């Protein structure tokens, strides 16, 4: 489960993804109610949502910075989900039922499950397929360019085959992230087509399944440390680097490189959890970012 301010996100089996609102309540002081649930296509699914990550869209429709005092009902989030069938999906969740978006949206209804609630809208922005291996973890990661002031969003996943994969998001999703273009849609010949996430790099780190993962930025969104725990009793330390350059069409190209290192026999059995703790030393934010992290 993840929480952002007064919203709590959780996922589970049967493709369940719920958004909960945390509110003040009498006597108990804190109350939680289900605001919305991700609708699924077709009948009851046996798929599990194995992991997810959430980023709040931080700009308003006029491009200005979001006012922190803005009502929760107007907030929007990018959510990336991984599934047990090796599928990854990116959604835009809007915590409001009133919208003028031209994109095809799905409104959670109460016909499936007892805890389904209306109150938010979901737009599927992109989907991707890995292999036949189960995806175990997902996180958004930023890449900044010196050639421009834009920040590009990527997706990092781990899987039961011991590999880390880096995915690029379609331009439409980048538009949602950078410019808050909530009317994102893709149409070809009058038929809506959901864009694809593309795998940019795959790196083998563990001999078997990756059971846990964490990510931290080392330097200015250009280098990141991915810490993984494997079913092979090892801890993986992978440096993820982005190199940017100008493309022929005037855009920005991002070259992806991963350098894996492992600590063999780190535990007597499978490494089921890892955590990255920022160092408290240093006098500036940059110095703190470059300090060695503790892993436990």
Please describe what this structure looks like.
Helix content is 5%, strand content 48%. It has helices at 171-179, 285-290, and strands spanning 2-4, 7-11, 17-25, 29-37, 49-56, 76-83, 87-94, 106-107, 121-129, 135-144, 151-159, 163-168, 187-188, 191-192, 198-204, 210-219, 223-230, 235-246, 252-263, 276-277, 294-295. A hairpin with a 6-residue loop joins strand 10 and strand 11 (151-159). The two termini are 20 Å apart. Mean pLDDT is 76; it is low at 59-65, 97-116, 183-191 and 283-296.
SSE diagram, text form:
Blueprint: E1 2-4, E2 7-11, E3 17-25, E4 29-37, E5 49-56, E6 76-83, E7 87-94, E8 106-107, E9 121-129, E10 135-144, E11 151-159, E12 163-168, H1 171-179, E13 187-188, E14 191-192, E15 198-204, E16 210-219, E17 223-230, E18 235-246, E19 252-263, E20 276-277, H2 285-290, E21 294-295
Antiparallel strand pairs: 1-2, 2-3, 3-4, 5-6, 6-7, 7-9, 8-9, 10-11, 11-12, 12-15, 13-14, 16-17, 17-18, 18-19, 20-21
